[in-house]
Amino acid sequence: MTIDELLDAARNGSARATGRLLSLVESPRRSEVLDALGQVRAPRVVGVTGPPGAGKSTTVGALVGAYRERGERVAVLAVDPSSPYSGGALLGDRIRMAAHINDPDVLIRSVAARGHLGGLAAAVPAAIRVLAALSYGLVVLETVGVGQSEIEIAAVADPTIVILNPGAGDAVQAAKAGLLEVADIVVVNKADRDGADQTVRDLRAETAAPILKLIAAQGEGIAELVEAIEAHVRSDSPQRRAARARSQILSLAQTLLRTHPELDRLAAAVADGSDDAYSAAERLFSVPVDS
């Protein structure tokens, strides 16, 4: 099928065609797909991150249910760290969101953080454009909360929600890991456990972001989380959108430069003294990425 035929099929409800389009934007044919989309209206993008075991997928599943009750089409992009030590986390994520798997207006898709053209910084914005063209009004990005993925996601999502557990030093560890720096909303999940109030107090010393208590498995606090998301969206401004766009462009540019085919050759020239770093950097910008 051609790109246009895939788009027509996806718009008519073909899950296979949608999956194929999302695979193509992770490949060297990305630009073909994006050119075929034309101008699309950007959907709302909510980022959800936090340490393993915080209850991210349970929270995302509850959020999907809440937004479906409002009549919205929702897509979930679960970012796979592509690690042999992930322990089948994505399978577990899909099980926890199983209530929505048969809903034609909910899409759940895994995205590899590494191993495809341009890395996560390139793949996610491209996937979001495809989803927007297919009339998904809300995209939820779920990441593991242990590395560079969160910085790249924060350049795309607004708001970014950081989910933590009571006790266990999660608040301090999140601060040390820089997670709270990307947080627009902080959630203390499993708030019926001991230490929840102390964790909230610890977090208030570390961040000015709104802090909510949640028991996602029981649906408690989900309505308040939805309202916090909507309040954040209502406060959006042209300046904030421009800042996100700048961050997104810079993140993608950095990724493209790190994977530039000329980088190793130029680095070797600088290392042996036959070139200087400034001139090499200028040359790196002047050579097309796909040369």
Short account of what is shown:
It comes from Mycolicibacterium celeriflavum (Mycobacterium celeriflavum). With 291 residues, the protein is an alpha/beta fold. The protein has helices at residues 3-11, 15-24, 30-37, 56-69, 89-96, 119-133, 148-154, 170-177, 196-204, 222-234, 238-258, 263-271, 277-286, and strands at 44-49, 74-80, 106-112, 138-142, 160-164, 185-188, 211-213.
Structure characteristics:
7 strands, 291 residues, alpha/beta, Rossmann fold, 7-stranded parallel sheet, 13 helices
Report the CATH C-level class of the largest domain: Alpha Beta
Rounded to the nearest angstrom, the radius of gyration is 20 Å
Portion of residues in helices? 40-55%
Uncertain runs with pLDDT below 50, 5 residues or more? 83-89
Structure classification: alpha/beta
Number of strands: 7
Name given to the CATH homologous superfamily of the largest domain: P-loop containing nucleotide triphosphate hydrolases
Sheet with the most strands: spatial strand order: 3-2-4-1-5-6-7
Calculate the mean pLDDT score and round it: 84
If helices are DSSP runs of H or I spanning 4 or more residues, what is the number of helices? 13
**How many discrete structural domains?**
3
Give, in order, the helices and strands.
HHHEHEHEHEHEHEHEHHHH
Largest β-sheet summary: 7 strands, parallel
CATH A-level architecture of the largest domain: 3-Layer(aba) Sandwich
Beta strand %: 5-15%
The coarse silhouette is globular
CATH topology of the largest domain: Rossmann fold
Beginning-to-end CA distance, first to last residue: 28 Å
